[in-house]
Automatic annotation (TrEMBL):
Identification of the protein by name: non-specific serine/threonine protein kinase
Primary subcellular site in the record, as a coarse category: membrane
E.C. number(s) listed in UniProt: 2.7.11.1
Residues holding ATP: K660
One GO location term (cellular component): membrane
Residue ranges of every copy of the Protein kinase domain listed in the record: 632-905
Signal peptide, first to last residue: 1-22
Leading EC class: transferase
Membrane topology, record value: Single-pass type I membrane protein
Superkingdom classification of source: Eukaryota
Length: 953
């Protein structure tokens, strides 16, 4: 009896102890427990039943109540269930940058009535934004940008009277912008809000006059890239506080309200790519305006307004296709902060003179496709200014092409330099920081939505940015050693995108708390960039190297749990035995795989892409490629063939790549694959597509190439790409191709015979430089594509050397034959075999050397420029026929072919060693006069160029 009493006593003490020690409010604990059950990828210390007491990562409490959840970039997956609404004291919820967080925002979110910050940036949430969001009366920050939300903007947002920041950009939101009507609320009621970020959605309808009023304190109004129609409301001009205004990329029409000229605080104004009409707006009073873009509207034709020259803060003036005419006054260039002037595609005429007192920061003047007839070259002028005049009459004159006719826009390569140290080569995927310490940085991309500068050249901007980010992190006591920026680039909608890497201090990786706080500083806009960068958002990458955790330890916890549960004699023993056997097998398998893997002994990190000097191919991990192709999704697939599929992808560095992924059955042996990579990585030539790397993992064989934006020659010959190839361009493409092949035959070591020269294997870059693709790659046998011969002979019907076909003897001259066929294809635009007719025979039969153009007028591709003189045409045809001689011995070598085409180029008035001109204007025949390519319906610039189709086979 006594014993029992003591036991009961002890038990109750124990219970009391439990109750006292559990700090967390039971409802909050239960809510977190349910979230824990549906989310994967949570911090390993989310164990037990007392989140506050046990200091779960990402949870902050006040007393027993959970007030903050910050779990950005944790790699969480799952959905946001209604359970979260059990946390009734929650004030801050930040789950940004968890790409695998899916599903809708539950309607019950409206119960969290203490919430001040709701931040869900860059997840994959979808469905409509619930009306109940309007019940979050305390909300100050609402950031739902870069998700997949659809449906309308809930009018109830208008009830959020405390709201400071509204960011719904980069979703699929549709319908009209809600404004109040006495019954239901609307965005016009948000008189304390400073930020309307609603760009990149599908919003439609007019912009209500009621949306803006003089009571508002808005500073950023971003409605870019939607489907809005009708005029800009007059009321916009009443919001005197405005600093950044973007309405570009809509379908706005009508005249620009004159009171826009009252917005004297505006620094960035984008009205481009709309259908605005009427007179060019008068913006004389905007004396703090730095960035002005009104391109692609149909304003009344006018001369350059005099007020351009009075905007003292202007850095960037972009007025592409705005019906400007007359001469460009040199006073425009004397604005002291001016960096970039883009007046492409107007009807500006006369002489271009940038004067003697132009801005010292001036970097680029683009007047392509105007009617400029002369240029005053001033010896004192700054030589760093890129002047672009291609497509003006001044560049039509033959003879020595001038720099300004061929120059192209310069990028702004910037990477945070190493600080007085030599970057080390780091192992296991770590990266050398600016202080040359190897570590796993946290990475992501900062997107600046409207910088006040042009985003070119000047490094000072980036140095400031880097410095302020570092100082911010250190000032909130985060263990950050350094930050590094790289690859600033203008992305879609003129956003300036910069890759960011944040390096840990003390250790080589961050822990979970560190990452969630680093993410929060950016997702919550706690960090304010230097003023000239303007509004921004950040998209972080998942972090994979949390300090003190490895992927394995997650598994071993779960095994531990299983073992714990099964504890009880022989079950445990059996498990241990099984585990031992399993481990042994795994080890054997790994050893075996290593024996078969010819790369096993390569030091893959040595060729890591993080060291820019290394030109060789590097090894890509499957994960890396899987990620940047979005799991090899169909949208990234840009071509396919017998070999497999080709995917387009962007590396985190911003570089575009093409991934050729061999399909089952067309793979080579591992050793052959390795030999091939070694071979290809040694081949570098301007006219050959470069191999960047490979992937040999998980039974995959992939080759990674540089991405060539303008697709294959076939697509341009067929008119599919919209790039018009007149005679000179065709000559240059033939020349480039011949040079690439000549290099393969004579300078590559060992020499490479291409074996499959054809128009789908010639790619064109931005400058229309020809790049030969698909050399050196072993072709699969027995492939079903009927273009291919399925015996040992490899090649494509129509291009194939008959001698090789008969004798099976492969020589360089087989490539020469195929090249000859390609030359005829270049002349006619026809495929080598079309409707059963063979191009070589057809042309031979039609040809009459005594007649003009060898009597081939009928058969030539009209876009070649029929009606103009095709200088060197006959020589070109003669050369093609020498290449397709029956016997290889009678054909010239590729080197001779290159020489011959160079002679032809000279005949046509071109210097063969000159870079090909950038996209200069195409001119129709002289009698029709000058015509913009845009005037031509079939010339489609607007949709961008087609994705490069690299034919894998
Ligand atoms: C704003 O612009 C309008 C029309 O352009 C003008 O009538 C008005 O006086 C201006 N208001 C102020 C306060 O400058
Ligand atoms: C532009 O507006 C200013 C005052 O707001 C005025 O002085 C100037 O004459 C106007 N310019 C033109 C070309 O209408
Ligand atoms: C330039 O264009 C303007 C307006 O179209 C015209 O009046 C002027 O004569 C042209 N000047 C020259 C030099 O062609
Ligand atoms: C770069 O920008 C800074 C201020 O942002 C300016 O002071 C400096 O003169 C600029 N340098 C050049 C070369 O334009
Ligand atoms: C103007 O429109 C063309 C064609 O749609 C586009 O390529 C160009 O980028 C636009 N210019 C600007 C500055 O937006």
């Amino acid at each position: 009896m006594m014993g029992l009493r003591i036991q009961v006593f002890l038990l109750s003490v124990w219970f009391q102890f439990l109750i006292i020690s559990a700090v967390t409010n039971t409802d909050d604990a239960a809510a977190l427990k349910s979230l824990k059950d549906i989310w994967k990828g949570l911090p390993p210390n989310w164990r037990g039943s007392d989140p506050c007491g046990d200091q779960w990562v990402g949870i902050e409490c006040s007393g027993s109540r959970v007030t903050t959840i910050t779990l950005s970039s944790m790699g969480l997956s799952g959905s946001l269930s209604g359970d979260i609404t059990g946390l009734s004291d929650l004030m801050t919820l930040d789950l940004s940058y968890n790409k695998d967080l899916r599903g809708p925002l539950p309607s019950s979110i409206g119960n969290l009535n203490k919430l001040t910050n709701l931040i869900l940036v860059g997840c994959s949430l979808s469905g409509s934004i619930p009306d109940s969001i309007g019940s979050l009366q305390k909300l100050v920050f609402l950031s739902l940008n870069s998700n997949g939300f659809s449906g309308k903007i809930p009018a109830s947002i208008g009830r959020l009277t405390e709201l400071y920041w509204l960011d719904l950009a980069d979703n699929q939101l549709e319908g009209t912008i809600p404004v109040s009507d006495g019954v239901s609320p609307g965005l016009d009621l948000l008189v304390r809000t400073k930020h309307f970020h609603l760009g990149k959605n599908k919003l439609s309808g007019g912009i209500p006059e009621k949306l803006f009023s003089s009571d508002m304190v808005l500073i950023h109004v971003l409605f870019d890239s939607n489907q809005l129609t009708g005029p800009l409301p007059f009321s916009l001009g009443l919001v005197k506080t405005l600093e950044v205004v973007r309405f570009d990329g809509n379908s706005l029409s009508g005249t620009v309200p004159s009171n826009l000229n009252n917005l004297t605080n505006v620094q960035e104004l984008f009205l481009s790519n709309n259908r605005l009409t009427g007179p060019m707006p008068n913006l004389t009073n905007l004396n703090t305006l730095s960035y002005l873009d009104m391109s692609n509207n149909t304003f009344d034709a006018s001369t350059i307004p005099s007020w351009f020259s009075t905007l003292q803060s202007l850095t960037t003036l972009t007025m592409e296709r705005t019906e400007l005419q007359g001469e460009v006054p040199d006073t425009v260039f004397s604005l002291s902060h001016l960096q970039t002037v883009n007046l492409k595609q107007n009807r500006l005429n006369g002489t271009l003179d940038i004067g003697t007192s132009h801005s010292s920061q001036l970097q680029s003047i683009n007047l392509q496709k105007n009617l400029i007839t002369a240029f005053t070259d001033r010896p004192g002028a700054n030589k760093d200014i890129t002047i672009l005049l291609a497509g003006n009459p001044i560049c039509l004159e033959s003879g020595d092409p001038k720099d300004y006719c061929t120059a192209s826009e310069k990028g702004s390569p910037y990477t945070t330099p190493s600080k007085n140290c030599v970057p080390t080569s780091c192992s296991s995927g770590r990266i050398s920081s600016p202080n040359c310490i190897c570590a796993y940085p946290y990475t992501g991309i900062i997107h600046f939505r409207a910088p006040s500068f042009s985003g070119v050249g000047n490094e000072t901007y980036y140095q400031n940015l880097e410095q302020t980010i570092l100082v911010k992190y250190q000032s909130v006591s985060l263990p950050v050693e350094s930050v590094s920026l790289s690859n600033p680039r203008k992305g879609q909608s003129q956003y300036l995108e910069i890759s960011l890497a944040v390096f840990p201090s003390g250790q080589d990786s961050f822990n979970r708390t560190g990452i969630s706080r680093i993410g929060f500083v950016l997702s919550n806009q706690t960090y304010k960039p230097p003023k000239e960068f303007g509004p921004f958002f950040f998209i972080g990458n998942g972090y994979l190297h949390f300090n003190g955790e490895t992927r394995k330890s997650e598994n071993s916890t779960s095994i531990g749990v299983i073992i714990g549960a099964a504890a009880g004699g022989c079950v445990l023993l059996l498990l241990l035995v099984l585990a031992g056997v399993y481990a042994y097998r795994q080890k054997r398998r790994a050893e075996k795989a290593n024996d078969q893997n010819p790369f096993a002994h390569w030091d893959l990190n040595k060729s890591s892409g993080s060291i820019p000097q290394l030109k060789g191919a590097r090894c890509f991990s499957f994960e890396e490629l899987n990620k940047c192709t979005n799991h090899f999704s169909d949208t990234n697939n840009v071509g396919s063939g017998g070999y497999g599929k080709v995917y387009r992808a962007t590396l985190p560095s911003g570089q575009l790549i093409a991934i050729k992924r061999a399909k089952q059955g067309s793979m080579q042996g591992a050793v052959e694959f390795k030999n091939e990579i070694e071979l290809l990585s040694r081949v570098h030539h301007k006219n050959l597509v470069s191999l960047l790397g490979f992937c040999f993992e998980r039974g995959e064989q992939m080759l990674i190439y540089e991405y060539i934006p303008n697709g294959c020659l076939r697509d341009s010959l067929s008119g599919k790409s919209g790039i018009r190839l007149e005679w000179l361009r065709r000559l240059k493409i033939a020349h480039g191709t011949a040079r690439g092949l000549s290099y393969l035959h004579e300078l590559a070591d060992p020499p490479i015979i291409h074996r499959d020269v054809k128009s789908t294997n010639i790619l064109l870059d931005e400058q229309l430089t020809a790049k030969v693709a698909d050399f050196g790659v072993s072709k699969p046998m027995g492939d079903s594509d009927n273009e291919h011969i399925t015996s040992q002979v490899k090649g494509t019907m129509g291009y194939m050397d008959p001698e090789y076909f008969m004798t099976n003897q492969l020589t360089e001259k087989s490539d020469v034959y195929s090249f000859g066929v390609l030359m005829l294809e270049i002349l006619t635009g026809r495929r080598p075999i079309e409707r059963g007719k063979y191009i070589v025979r057809e042309i031979k039969m039609a040809m009459d050397k005594k007649k003009d153009l060898y009597n081939l007028y009928e058969i030539l591709d009209p876009t070649i420029g029929l009606g103009t003189t095709l200088e060197g045409f006959e020589k070109f045809v003669d050369l093609a026929f020498r290449c397709v001689e029956e016997s290889g011995a009678d054909r010239p070598s590729m080197r001779e072919v290159v020489k011959e085409i160079e002679n032809i180029l000279q005949l046509a008035g071109l210097n063969p060693n000159e870079e090909s001109a950038p996209f200069s204007a195409s001119y129709d025949d002289a009698s029709k006069g000058y015509q913009h390519p845009y005037d031509n319906e079939s010339f489609d610039y607007s949709g961008g160029f087609p994705a490069s189709k690299i034919e894998a086979q």
